[in-house]
Design brief:
The structure holds two protein chains of two kinds. By secondary structure, chain A is an all-alpha fold. Chain A is 75% helix and 0% strand. The longest helix of chain B has 26 residues, at 71-96. The mean pLDDT of chain B is 84. Classes of the chains: A mainly alpha, B mainly alpha.
Chain lengths: 272, 196
């Protein structure tokens, strides 16, 4: 078999893994390529001594590059700042990602675009976790017709109630006599007990806030506790018009339980 | 190669950062060049190429602050250290002798099975034995040329030879390899029948 010598150019191309215009060297080129692949593997595991000296898992990022390129390369402080910024960047990225995800869920839930089951859970969670300040604002907003008056008087009522709400008797007296609005807010029987207790809570000083959380409704759901008060409050409902205004707007709107609460408010009206 | 292969950061930036002690830059140098160093050590017969590469990079990081040069000069610098480490290891082994734990598949007194022989031929060990029949100088040149991807001039610097001598060694090695490849494992003519 006739063979020609390997020129410098052929040797160069063989080292690069290819040989043009030399079919007789193809097998040799393939063999050298296989040798290169077999010899060069992945990045090896560093020894313990090398790992102790250098953190070989560190990766360059653009932030580090900018800091090191622009800054003083010889300063220890620069290196520390670069590593600190790297760590901060990761943490900030995680926080931003979580916050944006949560914001998206809240936005969709607020818009009512979640599936029915998820929307129900969302509403429950939101109603349970709404801060009192927000509830108070909603109370004022929703109770525009009757509640505006109530919202304006809530503070005063709370103040009055705080002074007079130390004992049940005083509450009854307050509800019935001093401030018929609160007591009369519970003007309806049954559920009105809840509203009545909300009026009581207002008297204690938490006014719109307590109502907003609907705690008053739970307590008032116990007829044994509230019966007397209800009676007193009912008795105190001398002014049905004011009663309904305070009871419905303060309790219902604040609670945010739109359906039930509004029902209470309506029941007050019916009682009227 | 102006930029590091995987990071895209200019080599000068990586080198300057590594010289200032930035660990990300040292890690970049390790990721870029350690596989080639391991391949060179393996091709030259090191028993523990990974450990040798770690020793090489410890030496590199020790003396990196005094290094001045381009990327090609850094490769020459790196493989000069690797070459010296390999030579030291081979010299120590030849001086002390080599103790190898007995394993049945490595026992030369037993013939390998046909399956083992086939696996051996197709394995990386067989491919890596390609240069074993070459003289030491030619083997050094071929490994540095193929695995370490050094130029003739860089190899000459590493081996402390002239470029002409390196070019000659490379040519003789390639000729020997071609002859070996062209040697057919079967006779070109059918065997004559033996008289019965």
């Amino acid at each position: 078999m006739k063979t020609t010598t390997i020129s410098d150019r052929d040797a160069f191309e063989l080292a690069q893994g290819r040989v043009s215009a030399r079919p007789d060297l193809d097998s040799l080129a393939d063999l050298l390529t296989a040798y290169r692949i077999a010899a060069i593997g992945s990045v090896p595991q560093p020894s313990a001594a090398l790992s102790a000296r250098v953190d070989l898992s560190a990766t360059p990022i653009a932030m580090q590059r900018d800091v090191i390129t622009d800054g003083d390369l010889n300063g220890v402080a620069t290196r520390r700042a670069a590593s600190g910024l790297l760590g901060l960047g990761v943490i900030v990225a995680i926080i931003l990602g979580a916050a944006s995800g949560a914001a998206a869920v809240v936005g969709i839930g607020t818009a009512g675009l979640l599936p029915p089951v998820a929307q129900g859970v969302f509403d429950q969670v939101v109603s349970d976790s709404e801060p009192p300040g927000v509830v108070g604002e909603e109370t004022t907003d929703q109770g525009e017709a009757p509640g505006v008056t109530t919202g304006g008087t809530d503070t005063d009522e709370a103040t009055d109630g705080t002074q007079s709400g130390s004992t049940p008797e005083t509450e009854s007296a307050d509800t019935g006599v001093v401030d018929p609005k609160h007591g009369n807010g519970a003007g309806t029987p049954g559920k009105d007990n809840g509203l009545g207790n909300s009026g009581h809570n207002n008297g204690v000083g938490s006014s719109g806030e307590d109502n907003g959380f609907g705690n008053a409704g739970d307590n008032n759901g116990n007829p044994d506790k509230d019966k007397d008060k209800v009676k007193d409050k009912d008795t105190g409902t001398g002014n049905p018009g004011q009663t309904n205004g305070v009871g419905s707007s303060g309790v219902d709107n604040g609670a945010g339980n739109s359906g039930e609460s509004n029902g209470n408010g309506k029941s007050d009206k019916k009682n009227d | 190669m102006d930029d590091a292969r995987t990071t895209g950061v200019p080599f000068e930036t990586v080198l300057a950062a590594a010289q200032s002690g930035a660990e990300w830059a040292s890690a970049t140098l390790w990721r870029e060049y350690a596989p080639s160093v391991v391949g060179f050590a393996r091709g030259r017969g090191s028993k523990d190429p990974d450990d040798l590469a770690s020793e090489v990079f410890l030496s590199v990081f020790d003396t990196l602050s005094t290094f001045i040069g381009s990327e090609s000069e850094f490769r020459s610098f790196l493989f000069s250290i690797a070459y010296r480490r390999v030579v030291d290891e081979l010299r120590q082994r030849s001086r002390r002798g080599e103790s190898v734990q007995w394993q049945p598949e490595n026992d030369l007194r037993s013939e390998p099975s046909a399956e083992d022989a086939a696996n051996l031929r197709s394995s990386d060990q067989s491919v890596l034995a390609l240069f074993d029949f070459l003289p030491v100088d030619q083997r050094n040149v071929m490994v540095l040329r193929i695995v370490s991807d050094l130029t003739i001039e860089q190899i000459a610097e590493v081996l402390d030879k002239t470029p002409g001598a390196v070019k000659s060694l490379q040519k003789r090695a390639l000729d020997a390899l071609r002859k070996k490849v062209l040697t057919k494992p079967y006779p070109s003519r059918p065997l004559e029948r033996l008289p019965v």
